[in-house]
Amino acid sequence: MDYRYLREWVDHNQKTNNRLIISDVKRYQENIFIGFKGELEQLQIVLDSSNPFLFFTTIKMLPSKKDSKVDVLNQHLNHSLICSIGIIESERIIYFETQKTDIYNQIQIYRLYCEFIPHKTNMILTKKSAEKEVVIDCWKYFTLADKTSRQILPGSVYLLPTRQVIESKQQNTKYLSAVKYPLQIESLISKKEDFADNIISRKFDDINSLFETFFYEYILPPKQNRIISDRIKLLNKEKTKKEKKLVKLIGEYEESKEFENYKRMAELLKVSLHHVRKGMESVKVIDYYSEDKSKIIIPLQQELTPIDNMKLLFKKYRKGIKGKEAIKQQINKTEEVIEKIDKEIFDIENRTIDIKDYKEQTLNQKTSTMKSKKIRKSDKYRKLKINKDWEVFIGRTNKENDELTCRMARPDDWWFHSRIFHGAHIILRNYSKLDITPELINLCSRLAAYYSKAKNSENVPVDYTQIRYVTKPHGSPAGYVIYKNQKTIYVNPLSLREGVKLVGTWQ
Question: Does the predicted TM-score (pTM) go above 0.85?
């Protein structure tokens, strides 16, 4: 960030935003949030290595929280009063001087330095005394072994960057030139093609609003997209593992059915014990379970008595039954995890959940949290309430599609699905059994187009009909249905969020 803009921010805030009392310090990744007592605004310090800066904001989009990285800041700055805000002359270092009374009724003076130097960004808390400033804690530690001109470690004396660097900057008149209003984000960015024209053309009358917009509309979205992309990759990787496990379990389950033969052989051996002698490798007996009463060969353990051989076969049968039940439970659990992964992928891809819901959570944490919550049947689907007569439900997985279409929907409800393309089942509940309107047909069809493989296309064909004409063939895969008496409409996709806004204009 250019020194001129940082200096302008300090000049604007050193009179209007001092005398604030710090209530807490939180963080989210490289963002530090300082809250104040009785104030909705919080100070956001962006410690990004390539573009660090700060601003006051009321936006609480990021899931900030207290953690060990800011424990020392909370310990020393909580309940302290900001006395002044300043900037080191010709250097991109902003400081906040605070004071608080300790338990001995002594006034302690602290300084929080924000060094907004690209690739050497740091935040340093110091304690002032008559002779020196001692570093209490810092965002990044630097020693002389790191080939730096100064050492920044807890307990060391805080020193500013060398005067040679500062003096060289003082010779640059452009670096010290005044900021001209109105301000534009265009002056803060290098690659204008990556930024929407309507954002670049916006003008700002104060520097703080410029910084806030710059972060939340330019810096944050690409980072969120990377988070989303990484999360989807992680989920797909986990889904692939679970699907492989499921195939293996199904194979083991099919093999476990062979254990039924142990019971059959044990029962046949039981009625033929008088033909068996210890030391025999096998015995041929009549199979009373077959229609033609043919003979089968039962393998035996030579070292066991006939009764012990019979008991061994029963034991293998009981073990097989238990194993079969355990495998079945594992299959059910694995299918549940795969379904939850599919739902989360759906929600992330379609932006129906916020960054707070999935960032910095492992998959196991996510699924266990979902499992622990009791979800009402009607609350587990994505839906859009139109009014008391109409409500839209969106299936996220094949299983949800089946539940919505075949169980929850009623004959007078309407069913929408993208033609040709794989996608979600959209159910329009008709609570009052009214005639459907063109506006509702258009809305639901656009939602069906968006929640399909054709979401990035135009003029997507969507079929719709009443639920009474939709049936599911016996034994067909989850999500598969057949329908008749349908009509087809060509529409452009519409997301759920955009749908909410559209419905809001109908009220």
Answer: no
